[in-house]
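[User] At your convenience, examine this fold.
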Amino acid sequence: MAGETASKRLKISPPSIGTHNGHFHADEALAVYLLRLLPTYQPSNLLRTRDPVLLSTCHTVVDVGGEYSPETNRYDHHQRTFNTTFPSRPTKLSSAGLVYLHFGKEIIARTTKLPVESDGVSLLWEKLYNDFVEALDAHDNGISVYDPGETKNLKKRFYDGGVSLGSLVNDLNNSYSDDEEETTSTSKKEPTPSESQEAEDARFIKASELMGTIFLRKLTRYHRTWLPARKVIQQAYSTLAAFPPPLNQILLLPHSLPWKDHLSTLEESPANSQPPVLYVLYAESSVPDAKWRVQATSVGDSFESKKALPEQWRGIRDEALDSVCGVNGCVFVHASGFIGGNKTKEGALEMAKKAVEA
């Protein structure tokens, strides 16, 4: 594979990684961390500079230098002719995407202990790019998540805080020290250029560790929960064709699983002829006598339900809900109707059947 071949080319020990100094961003912070997950880069020296002479001494250079050449371990994306994207994705890569493109499968295989050529590694490689790395690529390349022409007249209903990975990394560009006391003294000694660069490099390492920690947490979660859920959901979905309405629009799972992506993939398959699943049922936990949830499926990635639970059930609980719903053991229905609960699997199934037919 590309990452495996690239890794085998590395001969210098320890190899030095070069990136630019000055204001740093999430993409090169992650790119450096990803490289250092590979044995060849453990340990590795990091040089942050824009001096082309110094960068030429580095074994691997990311996000600076104006060159994309895997053969010489150069991974910049700022040159005018650059237009590389991840397979089947439209977003131009940043340094994070470039490193992930070439080394991601090897990193995933080493972290999860799965064979690098396995379907599991390929699925995780695509999942992590789509859900995590692509957003960093788009942010660094100034690509909006929506077509600006379609959203120019939209106004936010509320301020969402502007908190993103890019903003958290940007916060670390501030030059003040976290433990530095505020002072108005004019006699405070100004740091030398060398001291300033050392402090900046230390903040970059914090940014790199932040990005890397999030990457590994996502990889671990996808490996341990999302990937195993795929087979469970495929098996459950394959049984729906044998059921008459309304049961053929109710997906029954043994417990809470990350089902949305997998269900969407199955329903969007060109070979699929099933009517859309409207509700997914699952036990709240694996303990005996656990309560069950009835969750409406969504329209795409939105908060809109394909068919929310009936309006007359919403915001009601317990015995009052039993009376309105006509099913015993009801626990609640959310005010928006996207989810409800029952004390038993049988009760949850009855709620879902009634909701489909409502």
In short: The two ends are 52 Å apart (CA to CA). Residues 1-12 have pLDDT under 50 and may be disordered.
